[in-house]
Specification:
Order of helices and strands: HHHHHHHHHHHHHHHHHHHHH
Membrane topology: Multi-pass membrane protein
Number of domains: 1
Main location: membrane
Oligomer: single chain
GO biological process, one term: sodium ion transport
Protein name: Glutaconyl-CoA decarboxylase subunit beta
Radius of gyration: 22 Å
Subcellular location: Cell membrane
């Protein structure tokens, strides 16, 4: 009798039922956690995603089944609640002053979104459905919450692959972007100094937040959740009268949602769904989307340099992807390599925050067409 109970206990453990694919996924999860800790690649998200992936691939936990902890937390992803709340925090953290001071920056942010639509066409060519292709293409915006939001609406079965690809490439911005920037610009172009931006008043920032919300959502109602949350968060910041709310959005709210979002997105990466040929295709297409977006931003920056008779440094176009503020920091670093006296950070922040708005509008457009 005791022997039977011991055997029954043994078979109730995950060690007996674990598969090779699950072990591979556990190894991948550990690698993501390692990269987040050792290399500091997007640790705020790769640690929760990696640990969620680890939990999801330990047999018999039932965490993602009805009644399981992660199942209930996942409803915030499934219903599209978490990404807009992340956007609210991003808005509260972001200074739109550089964009307001140089409105032309919004064109660079728009140009960098071209990678989304080119990759969309490439994904359709490779056999993905239109909703799946749209979800893959949005990786090119370099905006994890937007990618998760659109995928949860159009192709939830691809959520794990797209989330891991999106956040991995966001983490690799300092590695992926510089070779593209150097390839498409000359040393003389990288040396160009830009004039100091004019000061922007608080009144202008408040009007900007309200105006973008009203005009953007009127034009594209499907972008309301993302764009509205982004601008509401920014209004909290710029109003100057609700510091408690602004600080909550910047800290407690965005941190809590980041934990829930990362854990549950990682937990969707079960061995059965993640280890497939489609995952490899998505990772490759995501890289293409990000590279094309960066290249389009730089090329449009070169065009603006010509039109302004050398007043624009083309490097700032690379910041048009919405990896805030990492892409802007990469532009600053590359500019100073060419000219130690070059200070491009604030100039690059204009296209950078324009890219955040652009990715939300791109997602809204795709959702309106395919949702």
């Amino acid at each position: 009798m005791l022997a039977e109970k011991l055997i029954s206990l043994l078979y109730s453990t995950g060690f007996v039922t674990v598969s090779l694919k699950q072990l591979i996924m556990i190894l991948i999860a550990i690698i993501l956690i390692y990269l987040a800790i050792k290399k500091q690649y997007e640790p705020l998200l790769l640690i929760p995603i990696g640990f969620g992936m680890l939990l999801a691939n330990i047999p018999l936990t039932h965490l993602m089944e009805p009644g399981g902890l992660l199942y209930y937390l996942y409803q915030g992803v499934k219903t599209g609640i978490y990404p807009p709340l992340i956007f609210m925090g991003v808005g509260a953290l972001t200074d739109f002053g550089p964009l307001i001071a140089n409105p032309r920056s919004i064109l660079l942010g728009a140009a960098a979104q071209v990678g989304i639509f080119i990759t969309f066409l490439g994904a359709v060519f490779l056999g993905f459905s239109l909703p799946e292709a749209a979800s893959i293409g949005i990786i090119g915006g370099a905006d994890g919450p937007t990618a998760i939001f659109l995928t949860s609406k159009l192709a939830p079965h691809l959520l794990a692959q797209i989330a891991v690809a999106a956040y991995s490439y966001m983490a690799l911005v300092p590695i992926i972007q510089p070779p593209i920037m150097r390839l498409l610009t000359t040393e003389e172009e990288r040396k160009i100094k830009m004039e100091q931006l004019r000061p922007v008043s608080r009144k202008e920032k408040i009007v900007f937040a309200i105006m973008i919300a009203v005009v953007g959502i009127f034009l594209l109602p499907s972008s309301g959740a993302l764009l509205g949350s982004l601008m509401f968060g920014n209004l909290l910041r710029e109003s100057g009268v609700v510091d408690r709310l602004a600080k909550t959005a910047q800290n407690e709210l965005i941190n809590i949602i980041t934990i829930f979002l990362g854990l549950t997105v990682g937990a969707t990466a079960s061995a059965e769904t993640f280890l497939s040929l489609n995952t490899i295709k998505i990772i490759i297409l995501g890289l293409v989307a990000f590279a094309v977006g960066t290249a389009c931003g730089v090329l449009f920056g070169k065009l603006m340099k010509v039109l302004t008779k050398g007043k624009i440094n083309p490097l700032i176009g690379a910041a048009g992807v919405s990896a805030v503020p990492m892409a802007a920091r990469v532009v600053q670093k590359e500019g100073q390599k060419a000219n130690p006296g070059n200070f491009l950070l604030m100039h690059a922040m204009g296209p950078n925050v324009a890219g955040v708005i652009g990715s939300a509008i791109a997602a809204g457009s795709l959702l309106a067409l395919l949702g």
